[in-house]
Structure formats: C-alpha cells, structure tokens
Here is the input.
Amino acid sequence: MATTATIPASRLHGHHDRPSMVSVGTIIWLSSELMFFAALFAAYFTIRSVSPELWDQNTALLDVPFAAVNTTILVLSSLTCQLGVFAAERGQVGRAGSVLNVRGWGLREWFILTYVMGAIFIAGQAVEYANLIQEDVTIPNSAYGTMFYLTTGFHGIHVTGGLIAFLFVLGRTYLARKFTHEQAVSAIVVSYYWHFVDVVWIGLFATIYLVK
Here is the structure.
C-alpha cells in the first residue's frame, strides 16, 4: 500500500524558474481539443441558422430537467476531483480514519467518487439517447439529430476517456508501495482534463438545452 508523504509544491508545479513540462504539455493538448469543440459549436450554429423550424421541432423533445440534473452531477464532480488533487498535493493517498469521515479522505476516495459521478453522467446520457431515438431523433433522420449526437457524443467519448484516466491513476496508487511525485503530477494533469470536459459540457448544455 502506498504510504503518505508530503510532496513539495516545487516538485508538483515545476521549479521556481520554470513550470512543470507535463502540465504545460497537457495544457497545449487541451488547447487543441478546445479548437475541436469550437468547430463543433460553429457547425451546430451554422446548420441551426439555416434550419430554424427543424430546431424548434426537435428541441421541444429534450428533457431539460433531466439534463440539468445530469449536468449538476458532472459539474459537482469537478469539485470532488479538485479535492482529490488537494489530497495528492498533501501526499495523502488514502483516507485517515473512517470512510464516513469525509474530511479525512485522500486522493483515492475523492477520485473514486468522481469516477462514480462521471459514470452516472454517461449512464444518464445513454438514457437520454434511448428516449430521443424512440422519438425518431436520429443521425440519419435529420440535421438536428446529426449535430445533437455529434456534439454530445464526442463529449461523452471525452468523459469516458477521463474515467479511464481515473482508473489509471487509482491503479498506480494501489500498485505502488510509496506515493510519488510522478503519481501526484498524474492526478493533477488528469484534473486539468476533467475540468476541461466539465466546462465544455456547460457550454454544450447552454447551447443545446437552454438556447431555443
């Protein structure tokens, strides 16, 4: 089992004269992902501008309250993820005391909770897809269906990628005898990715479910 040891902040976030190269590389990669989603937003608004009647007809079928609850779960998972990062920065890999003592939770507990919340979001998205398909909202049926599933589907793939990353980080903490600087950095960069997909979803939720 990994042991607890405080990791100097200078090792987590780079030296005093230069940032962590892993963090910089992750931010650059996320910038490219941001441009990818910007292209999807552009396509969504472009097609909507030429088919307003189609949008009016299909947006009425969306279950906004259900999507709002699902969105809230995903947004709150950013908070639990960041609490896990704070624990990693303290070098606390596991909980101190009872599992009911939330204040004593470490990286594992917060990341496991984040994983569960992310999985609930994906399950909710699958339920929503099933309901819309029953209403004949599909990719081949209309341009609206195409853009709805492309935008939300690509985001769902990114969320699934984040869930796999959480499993990777958690697996390393169980396999290693000591919680290391490298494991803490992995937790931090995964949090960058998770916050990114959460922010993108807020934009998607507002665009698809609220702007009608």
About this structure: Confidence is low (pLDDT under 50) at residues 1-12.
